[in-house]
């Protein structure tokens, strides 16, 4: 074989190897064709439902090559964040506490926008509600709420502790799903429930109990739900993440301007009568937002509380308390608002 032929063959092989390396090299940009969004059956996360019903998620993300937007429903935040940690979710509407709890356990994600504040209600059986005098009244009671690491479990723990009631010894907090909580209080298996709207209103209208406290009185202006995105999406597709925030802002402003329509949309998604959802929205102290800065102070307090509840285990593993930059990425929101 001639020398010139060998040179050409060698050059060809090198080119093929380079093309293969470029195509397969680690860390190369992943092309998304499908986006999966997690949510819960609550009025708190109506913005996700509004954007879906209006077709905004599909329309707005189509220019990034997204062909399908899938929605997965979760009973509460902790299992939703476990799904995100496992790579099953790209975007999540979820309480601020669950992503923080999972960030301590290695979740690679950031809070990029606010969703709403306050909006959870404490419901007691009627005979207990009549004698209710604040957190001291819960001593010795069983309260059904979401699992440890959720917003509701964290708020209830903080509120009790702040008033001298030990949340681990004086009150039994039973971790449940919303439907389970409604059944438990209806049968008298628990003394009360602490859940996000519309569930307190549903339980009250069923005659199973009475709302005695809203979470805004337990912790004024506390952050509740937020918008979380996986770290990989932020790093590799920042333009898409910016659009996700834009779509969320649009949906939030729409639901605030059209509460009756938003109630009907939410009712369809969570399988509750629209009039009940509307009454819940009117009654609750919930406030829909999109500014992530509103949630930073209480987000850091969640981080402190969750760390304190797990201090021994975290310190044993060398885990430090999370800081603002570990939890939040407000850059997308700030860039959008700067252009308005």
Write the layout of secondary structure elements.
Blueprint: H1 3-24, E1 34-39, H2 46-53, H3 56-61, E2 68-73, H4 77-85, E3 91-95, H5 97-103, E4 109-117, E5 120-124, H6 126-129, E6 142-145, H7 151-162, E7 172-175, H8 178-187, E8 192-196, H9 199-205, E9 210-214, H10 215-218, E10 223-230, H11 231-236, H12 238-257, H13 259-270, H14 274-283, E11 287-288, H15 296-309, H16 311-316, H17 324-327, H18 331-338
Parallel strand pairs: 1-2, 1-3, 6-7, 6-8
Antiparallel strand pairs: 3-10, 4-10, 4-11, 5-8, 5-9
Helix pairs in contact: 2-12, 2-13, 4-5, 9-14, 12-13, 13-14
Key terms:
single chain; 340 residues; alpha/beta; D-Maltodextrin-Binding Protein, domain 2; 2 domains; 6-stranded mixed beta sheet; 5-stranded mixed beta sheet; 18 helices; 17% strand; globular
What does this structure look like?
The chain has 340 residues and is an alpha/beta fold. The chain has two domains: 34-117 and 222-338, Periplasmic binding protein-like II (D-Maltodextrin-Binding Protein, domain 2), CATH 3.40.190.10; 120-218, D-Maltodextrin-Binding Protein, domain 2 (3-Layer(aba) Sandwich). It is built from 18 helices and eleven strands. The chain has helices at 3-24, 46-53, 56-61, 77-85, 97-103, 126-129, 151-162, 178-187, 199-205, 215-218, 231-236, 238-257, 259-270, 274-283, 296-309, 311-316, 324-327, 331-338, and strands at 34-39, 68-73, 91-95, 109-117, 120-124, 142-145, 172-175, 192-196, 210-214, 223-230, 287-288. The chain has a six-stranded mixed β-sheet with strand order 2-1-3-10-4-11. Strands 7-6-8-5-9 form a five-stranded mixed β-sheet, with helices on both faces. Mean pLDDT is 92; it is low at 4-28.
